[in-house]
Amino acid sequence: MQSFVSSLVSVAFHGLAYGMILYVISVGLSVTMGLMGFVNLAHGVFAMAGGYVMLTAMNRYDVPFLLALSIAFVSVAAASILLERLLYARLYTAGDLEQVLLTIGLIFMAVAVARLIYGTLQQPVHLPAYLKGQFSLLGRDFPAYRVFLIAFSAVLVAALWFGVERTRWGAKVRATVDNRPMAQAIGINTSRLFTITFALGSGLAALGGGLGADITAIQPTYPFEHLVYFLIVVAIGGLGSLRGPFVAALLIGVSDTACKYWVPQFGAFFIYAATIALLLWRPAGLFGKA
Amino acid sequence: MISPAHAAGYVSDPRMRPIEWLPWVIAVICYFAAPSYLPLGSFILIMILFALSLDLILGYAGIITLGHAAYFGFGAYVSGILAARVTADPLIGLVVAAFAAGLLGWLTGMVILRTRALTLLMLTLAITSICFEVANKATKWTGGADGLGGFAIKPILGLFKFDLFNKTAYIYCLVFLFLGWWLVRRLIYSPFGASLTGVRENVVRMYAVGAPVYQRLVIVYTISAALAGIAGALLTHSTQFVGLKVLSFEFSGDLLVMLILGGVGRIYGAFVGPVVYLVAQDSLAKQFPEYWYFGIGLMLVLVVMFARGGILGILDVLLSRFRRGKR
Questions:
Q1: Helix, strand or coil for residue B64?
Q2: Is residue A138 part of a domain?
Q3: I want to staple B224 with a disulfide (CB 3.0 to 4.6 A). Which of A82, A112, B57, B208 is the partner?
């Protein structure tokens, strides 16, 4: 009994950490999908890029962890502005197929570049000393890194929620998600809003990739490997909201960890089956508007 | 998406144009002219059939899928397991694989076609991933990561033995590609094909005229899955081996790239794409494997940005310019 409880706590804890990472990465995808209707399969590329930038800064130039993380955020967000202006913006009005093809093309290129620069092996993660130990709470020990990860993501989520629900920029985003032509008609510069939101979403993905580098290994196949999970979060959570993907990400994080802990021989089978069942019941996701 | 000028279909003349015999003439010439390339040739023929099946749902019905390998792989494994355990007769294997893949296509199609866009895409990925997981874990039946081999396919009709040089396999694949092509061509030029194009171009209007959109999509998805299953079985029979790769996401991706390269929504795009892609891959990919995928990605971006019709689309533009210049 005692061991069952402790494994239950352990699964819930690790699942929560994984779910938080999933959320930080996928929330940008959900918002860009809701805002611009853009099927951006290359979202994982930004997460991978964030991970590589952070690890390179830390391993090669001895940059401290938090500074490296912010460098990853800023550089990936800046690069994504360039991509958005050059490529994405031209395809906002195109069909889904064009958007899918463009972003798959970007994945192929990113994977090839990552392999050329870093090789096929996963990047080593050297955590700073203050994140290495254990953190005890209620008589149990938790790895400090994951505690930090959960706390950091929670702060991020709160900041994001405040930004979207309480600021002028957030009001514009919500207005544009609801009705783009009307938002444009009352003088919101939607194309600039798209660029900023896209950059923010990509930056968050980079943060997620960097933060989660110890959980989701940074290697060239990253954008392919985790693509299904990001898409599941967005599809179950519904488009363009903050709350939906949050619940979906936590659900998936915990149940995926539980499945891998108790029935490893089935792999990710249950997650996929549950996703299909859920979408049969509610095709627009748990919180989506049908 | 695809301009009406390019879209062959119900409105255009369904009679065979002379140039449509060209691929078959070339295929027969290749059989005699390049005997050492027949293994590659058989694979190209199989991929053409597979690309045709994808073209039917992607190009004509507008269903965007990233998991078409599920049906190809399912057909390949079904015929492989059948050959290893029940009977190694190729034609029985082909029929069973077609039915099995069609059944899987019907069941999954009923689920995924209720959704749209991103969700649909995700479900196609998820279904392929499930198939992959099952094939990977059920080692007793599928051989898992080692692949399924060790069976010998019997001669076709008891007459034509599969040889080392793939001579029989090449003809075998060519015959079934021809049948598949004939079926797809008939479908496209039929009223059914016209209704698919209607769904692709304007689904709201199709609902408005009372067309049974969902049923049509499920039917075409099932047909396409069965064709993909046949292609998979052809691969099993010609190589006498099934590897996990046939169920992978990369395989679906490669197929999509081939079709895009040739030209989506046009029957011969599915012919040109695999030929160009696989011949280029055969010579380039071994020397520069990393640059190869970078090049593929770059090509996809360029096609989307500048040449939506693929190779055949570019040819169309050049031809029409040439004709205008003459006048």
A1: coil
A2: no
A3: B57
How crowded is residue B299: how many other Cβ atoms within 10 Å of its Cβ?
Answer: 19
Domains held by chain A: number: 1
Q: pLDDT value at position B11?
A: 63
- Residue A5's identity, in one-letter code, is V
Domain boundaries, position A193: 11-124+143-281
Measured between CA atoms, how close is A128 to chain B, in angstroms? 34
Q: Which runs of consecutive H residues, i.e. helices, occur in B189-244? A: 191-201, 203-208, 213-239
The pLDDT, as a whole number, for residue B4 is 43
Residue B304 at interface with chain A, using a CB cutoff of 8 Å: yes
What's the ipTM?
A: 0.83
Candidates A252, A281, A250, A280; CA nearest to A268 is A252
Q: Does B126 touch chain A (CB under 8 A)?
A: yes
pLDDT band at residue A289 using 50, 70 and 90 as cut-offs: low
Query: How far is B237 from B88, CA to CA, in rounded Å?
Result: 9
A135: number of Cβ within 10 Å: 14
Which range is least confidently modeled, A48-62, A158-172, B44-58, B279-293?
B279-293
DSSP B16: P
CB contact under 8 A, B304 and A39: no
Q: Which residues of chain A are within 8 Å of residue B304 when distances are taken between CB atoms?
A: 91, 94, 98, 101-102, 105
The answer to whether B126 contacts A276, with C-beta atoms less than 8 Å apart, is yes
A287 lies in a domain? no
Residue A123 pLDDT level (bands cut at 50, 70, 90) = confident
CA distance B283 to B20: 28
Q: Which residues contact B264 (CB under 8 A, 6 or more apart)?
A: A97, B2, B55, B58, B59, B309, B310
Residue A283: which of B115, B129, B299 has the nearest Cβ? B115
Which of B:54-113 have CB within 8 Å of A?
58, 62, 64, 66, 111
Question: Mean pLDDT, to the nearest integer, of A280-286?
Answer: 79
A137 belongs to a structural domain: no
Task: For residue A202, give how far its alpha carbon lies from the nearest alpha carbon of chain B (Å).
Answer: 18
**B175: nearest Cα among B5, B49, B1, B303:** B49
Among A228, A269, A285, whose Cβ lies nearest the Cβ of B125? A228
Mean pLDDT over B13-39 rounds to 85
Residues of chain B contacting residue A33, judged by C-beta atoms under 8 Å apart: 118
> Would you call B203 exposed, middle or buried from its count of C-beta atoms within 10 A (0-12, 13-18, 19+)?
middle
The reply to whether A205 falls in a domain is yes
Instruction: Give the one of A106, A107, A272 whose C-beta lies nearest to B130's C-beta.
Output: A272
Q: Within an 8 Å CB–CB cutoff, is residue B290 touching chain A?
A: yes
Mean pLDDT, residues B2-12: 51
Contacts of B260 in chain A (CB under 8 A): 101
Give yes or no for a contact between A111 and A224, defined as CB atoms under 8 angstroms apart: yes
Q: Which among A87, A115, A269 has the least Cβ separation from residue B130?
A: A269
